[in-house]
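Escalation from tier 1.

The customer reports that the assembly of two entities below gives different structure tokens on two consecutive runs. Tier 1 could not reproduce it. I'm attaching the input and our single run for tier 2 to review.
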Amino acid sequence: MTRWLLRRLLDTLATFLLVAVLVFVLMRIAPGDPLDRLSDDRPMAPAEQARLRALFGLDQPLGTQFLQFAGAAVRGDFGASIEYYPTRVTELVASRLGPSLLLGATVLLINLFAGVWLGVLQARRRGSRLDRWLTRLSLAGYAAPSFWLGWMLVSIFAIEWRLLPAAQMTDPMLPPNAGCLAQAADVGAHLILPALTLTIISLAATMRYQRSAMLEVLRLDFVLAARARGLSERRVIWRHAWRNALFPILTLLGLWLPVLVTGAVFVEQVFNWPGLGSLTAGAVMTRDYPVLMATALLVAAAVLLSGVLTDLAHRLLDPRSRDQ
Amino acid sequence: MIGSLRGTVATAWHNPSGRAGIVVLGALLTFALVGPAFLPDPTRIPSLGQGAAAPSLTHWLGTDHFGRDLMARLATGARISLAIAMIAVALSLSIGTAVGLVAGSLGGGVDRVLMRLVDAALAVPRLFILLLLLAVWERIPIAALVAVIGATGWFGTSRLVRGEVLRLKNDGYIQAARALGAGRARTIFRHLLPNVAGVILVSATLSMGDVILLEAGLSYLGVGVQPPTPSWGVMVFDARNSFATAPWTLFFPGALVVITVLATSLVSDALRAAFDPRSA
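Tier 1 run:
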């Protein structure tokens, strides 16, 4: 097992290095210059432009630029942000990590519970009207552009009904000496709408996976045997069938992450949530390419690692997968 | 095998959800093709300071904050969004199928190198790849946008096709074709390709929806279709400042995206069910 894990990690590292090259190349093959935007508003002297290009290393040959980028990246340094100069990109990313993790974990948790429960429900009532409508509704959620859904929820819950806050993570009017509970409640209230938006767009995948995994299992003999022994339906479903329909859900973890991260870029932008998503969206609008490269690499690392974790979980839980 | 492809589409048509999806997509295509001819110019700003008007008999879906007819903008937007999606998907399917066929049938070092590259590309979510490519680009031409979206969508398809090829490679009829002296090219195009067509078709309908969402997202972030050309994503972006007083400017473009993507998912589901009845 240890040898397998070691080999898998080395393999992942090789892929990641390739990703780094890819990210660098992608950034530089597009026409246009990250510094063009700075001269949009007012004319800039050529000497000034040259100084800035030297400052960000853009005057070096591509190969040198890549080596500098890679060398610094290995040390955890992605250079200075252009928009927030001279703040380091690493610093910027670190300050945005917490809120992103909070939002992501909340969505994952709701998604897991609601998606599993609804998926099992659908499998039990396969082909019924309930099954069909749950599929259609969840697909409609998947079909909604996350930013549009976010603005729609803002217009209903924040503007029309004035129930929930529409932006940021905390209320600036909240006194700084407010109790722990009040502060947590404040963050919680700000969390509801972004989390709801992300859940709606990502729930379909979970339900679908759970439904088909459950259908596979429900056809098997041991479920019939459990029923024949007169066990209660609840016990048959959750204790016997569901436990065996859990594996495919593991695979889903690897698929979720890209969806969630992509959704977060838009949803955090809409709700001004101070996470990595809104940092990325802002970097796109201001062409802050060092920030973009760092977030892309971070996301890639997360996706690759979640792949390793999924495989590891599979091997730990299912002895059959170890033979392959 | 092409006959069975037709049979599959027929089966999908008999599935109520599938039929609904096909009908809706047909209606949208008609709206996109014919609509702009009967509607006012979507980019002309009638007179300044007019503001957004609610839906009425003259403007069925109302106007935006510049006084531009919303339905006209939606129709032109449909034309752009659907055209981008169709061309980009065709592009990425062709690349993906070619790479998958090559990797799967040649095997060996070629396969390893190609799949390693695909692994790396799949690790970065497509949106991020596109953002990296488009962020520094001044005024992206639509043709370049289509090319870039198409060129970043084939990784999954190539994996899928490669898997199918590996599965089919040892099937009796492929072996028989080889034994009868069919060359590599003939085996690939006459025997393998028709049998992976089903997988490709399902993946095509599925990625249609993804690309429509992706294009809307890119346009929303300002790195897709450039205003004043209307695209559904641009329209949502425009509406974010006016929706509090003119909610229709926000509602309609997004709702049209939902309808379109939902229709493609229903068609894709129906096709998948027709190929593999057990999965339904």
